Amino acid sequence: MNCPYCSYHDSKVIDSRDVNDVIRRRRQCLSCGARFTTYERVQPSSLFVIKKDQRREEFNKSKLLTGIRKACEKRPLPTGTVDKLADDIEAELYHLGRTEIPSVIIGDMVMKRLKNLDYIAYIRFASVYREFTDITILKQEVDTLVNSEAEVSQPASQLPLLPDEELQGLAKSHHRRRR
Ligand SMILES: [Zn+2]
Fold first, then answer.
1. Element (DSSP H or E) covering residue 165
2. Which end of the chain, N or C, is less packed with Cβ atoms under 10 Å?
3. How would residue 147 be classed by pLDDT, with cut points 50, 70 and 90?
4. Distance from the CA of 104 to the center of ligand 1, in angstroms?
């Protein structure tokens, strides 16, 4: 850990304490004397994600978080929902005890949760993740959802928040059909 001020490579620990599962260390740079804090936590054994093109990539939670956050953008969700969702998925993944996991499974885990959380966020995530290239396939997905999840309700007042015209059209027809 290099000093954040002068980049010197060595520091001494002047204080160390446990905070939950994290060890917080107060350090002092051996070169410039600046003090800074580091946090240390146990890294669960590495988890690799197998992508659709069969490439392997180390599981990256912030990437997962970015994807979910994008889907939930401007949706009326309580603060912390997105982080909790990513935490849950991470925990579930490590719980599986596997060293490799297909990206498809992770995507499905996210979709399953978003579906119960927010209809629009779900569709947004699905449209990116499933790489819907044409609107017909996206519409099929919406129709399937509408047919199988009649209990998913979105107050009409939320519908105009949709940024995408095409999605908006779909949502409207979805709304009409449910009346
Ligand atoms: Zn320094």
1. helix 165-177
2. C
3. confident
4. 44
How far is 126 from 147, CA to CA, in rounded Å?
17
pTM for this predicted structure: 0.53
**End-to-end Cα separation, the chain, in angstroms:** 60
Nearest to 108 by CA among 126, 82, 87: 126
Q: From ligand 1's centre to the CA of 31, what distance in Å?
A: 5
In the reported structure, the alpha carbon of residue 19 is separated from the centroid of ligand 1 by a whole-number distance in angstroms of 25
Residue 157 — pLDDT band, cuts 50, 70, 90? very low
Q: Which residues surround ligand 1, an ion (CB under 5 A)?
A: 3, 5-6, 8, 29, 31-32, 34
The per-residue DSSP string of 41-89 comes to EPPPSP-EEE-TTS-EEE--HHHHHHHHHHHHTT----TTHHHHHHHHH
pLDDT tops 60 at residue 102: yes
Task: List the single range of 52-56, 115-119, 124-128 with lowest mean pLDDT.
Answer: 124-128
Here the tokens at position 23 are 């060890």
Distance 23 CA to ligand 1 centre (A): 21
- Amino acid at residue number 13: V
Look at residue 160 in the predicted model and tell me its pLDDT: 44
